[in-house]
## 1
Amino acid sequence: MIKAIFLLSVLYTGAAAEAACCPDGWVRYGSSCYTIITSQRDWTEAASDCGIYGAHLIHIETKAENDFIKNYLKKFTKTGASLTSWIGLSDMIGSWQWTPNGETLSFSDWSPGQPGRNEPNSNCATLWAPKGYTWDDYGCNLSANFICEKSIDSATIVG
């Protein structure tokens, strides 16, 4: 009986460890998996494309998470890539909120003077490459890369 319990314990622990992995092409931080999509999309298309992966545009909730993502993007910048990327933040309804759940900001890393564009349709946020991946409001109809996020619980193992 003890051997059976031990075997079940080992099998359960192994399955739990596997379930905590991110799919190929995704990177883990905390309880989330992230992937950078370098296909240029407008903000609405980017949000929709993340949904195909069972994910959403990234929600950056802490300085530590923000620093992790910025450092990850900066690795690509060293190769000459400029990865200005959509995040899941917009003020389309009058105040800056994470979409699609409507959570308000508990942390922000706006570029100096941002948000503040006086351009039409500048209601969506990016991690702005020219300013060290600080946040910038940007025209939702413009094209940019984007970052998808999903929780470890909803991540499936691929490969």
Note: The chain has three helices and nine strands.
## 2
Amino acid sequence: MSAKFDPQELADLAASLSRVPETESTAQFLLAEAGRFYHQWKSDRLLRADEIPIPLPRKKALFPANCELEASFLSFRFRPGDQEHLPSQADYQVRVEGWLITSSAVYELQDHWRVDTHIEGIALEDGRGVPHEPHPFFHFQRGGHAQDAFANGATFIPSAGAAINGDWRGLFQCPGPRMPALPMDPILAIDFCIGQGDGKVWGRLRNIPEYFDLIERAQKRLWQPFFKALREPAFQRLWLGTFVI
């Protein structure tokens, strides 16, 4: 097998995912999109997928209390870089949907988190391509553009325009912290998202030899040279951004 990422691996991954009931819909999506992935990769060296169904997170420590989960999705954009361990774009957005039903209302809920790539020259907050806050090259954070769109809807509460009187409490979300994260290709991202949502399902998948082999090869391909490169001060500054003096 090539040391470089091959979109055929997504079809191989789907074969293993189809053997676990909770990931059958993930497998079906990947198989249905296999042709499109191939043509994207051949023409643009890019892989893009929107709303891949992934297993629901386990119902544990959820807010608000008594909410019900309905669906969970992964979207990604992946483009390799000149160095195999440093993709030029590796953005992964997770959206979880749910509901809260009370005696007086029904609330549509969404949670969002992402592993993102910050490319110098994209964020132009100060006109020079340097953000005000430090952005590690690969970073994990809450929120994202999909959350912005959801929260800007007319029926979103709490909001300044909502006609609700009285004092209320609610959770709110800031854009930070942006935690440095390992680079991922789509194989590693799918494995990561499943593991973060439902560790029991993830454990069953990793007991499938073919699945385990795919993940192991992807980790060696991407992370072994990444860890080796971290020994170099220049690469440390690239990965951690302006955190590094």
Note: The chain has a mean pLDDT of 84.
## 3
Amino acid sequence: MAVCGVSPNRLVWMGLLFLFGLLELVFSQLADSLTLLLDSFHSLWVLLDLAMPVLAECLARRPVPSAHTFAWERLVAVGCLVADVLLLSLCCSVSVAAVSRLLSPHPFHRPTLPIAAGAGGIVVNLGLHLWLRSIGGGWSSSPSLGSGQDLRDSPGEHPRPKDKSADSTRWENDPAAARDTADRGAQGKRILSCLVGVGQSVLSSVLALAVGFLHSFPAAPAGSWHKDCLPYLDPGLSLLTALALVIGVAPRLKVSVLLLLECVPEQVDLRRLTERLAAVSGVVAVHELHVWRLSSRRVLASAHVQCRSLVGFARVSGDLRRVFDSEGIHSATVQPEFISPAGIGSKVCQLACGPQCAKKLCCEWPKGA
């Protein structure tokens, strides 16, 4: 039975990850393996990623506090940020311990534990990755914050750039060829993305398994290169694992930070959007245009639009809405500003609120009003 409307499969995977991560943590302490310790941290990171949508769904069923005007829209983004920062801090602490281990190496203990945990980690992470792919997600339940899926999937009215090349002409004359080429390119990208995701999900487990296997070989004679290199193997591979985890999580951390800073999404050209809004018939000027992501699925915008009269704004409001929709922005707030015919271009408001709020106006308050 689903809990808070969440799939039971997700809850099963969360429980399995919790138990397996705890087991890896215990095994890493018994074997004194930094590589296996990082693998347990990776399992914790994936568990937090899976748990945030569950928490958001449960909170969505409860009354929303009045202070949360956007409810829990950004809870998953905040959870991703916390999980990423936690993983980065743990990678840094393990890296410091690995450097210390390299300077004063000591023997490895119980190599069978990393072998068992590494093999189990490959199975668990690979199964989880394939399950998430089957439901159309990455490590989190929502699309990547920077994927731009919401914008690319929305119907657009963007003019196609002119290309005089022979390939462009052939595609215009043969739309089927263009679709086939686009489908092949998209399929290749999906396959590459899947392979990269599989590699990232099982890398730490594979390295922990390799450390255990290399330490389980029969004892080499003293003075051989194999005997001398073994103490440096675990800390060296743990540094490699930490570097791989940092490289994998850094882009997602950047996207989370940009979202929380309310930056303009990469898929939106703010200058082009301003020009398209200003080109709408009946619009005199556009200013104070802001575009930002509220969450991975929702893009908001606000703008001040100068028109000649209230009747003129009522006529152009539908055109403005269609421009925003064509850019993938389906929640836009437009504040009209009406100017008198004599004041067109001088930014003098027709509706002034009085001296008490003159300093807060975005346009000049007429003197003597």
Note: Residues 86 and 223 are 41 Å apart (CA to CA).
## 4
Amino acid sequence: MWRAALLPACTTGAFCAVFALVISSLAPMLGTTQVLATSFASGFLGSLVAQLILRK
């Protein structure tokens, strides 16, 4: 079960991190590391929680 949930969660997190790089180029006041970490965590956890809720 965890393998099936982790792959989409990592994919979502990576997408959010790339999206955040684009956003950070538009808003240079934000630190790159801060934007990447927050975006990855948000996408990863959001996808993981959604999958766990929807499967039950």
Note: The radius of gyration is 13 Å.
